[in-house]
Amino acid sequence: MLQARDEHGRQAGNPEPSAISRMVANLGRGNAFVIVERVDGDADGDWYVQVWLRDDNT
Length: 58
Prior knowledge:
- The chain has one helix spanning 17-25; strands spanning 2-6, 11-13, 33-38, 47-52.
- The protein is α+β, with helices and mostly antiparallel strands.
- The chain has a four-stranded antiparallel sheet, with helices on one face.
């Protein structure tokens, strides 16, 4: 299962690709990152992707 969260603490459990796209599109000052991680007790290791908005908006 995937779990996504942003800097404001909003979370989405098992988000659809469109939900992840909206979270990334809404990045801005005060909400500068999105983390999507795999939460699976049966799989070895941790897997995640982090999207970070830099100060120069890139």
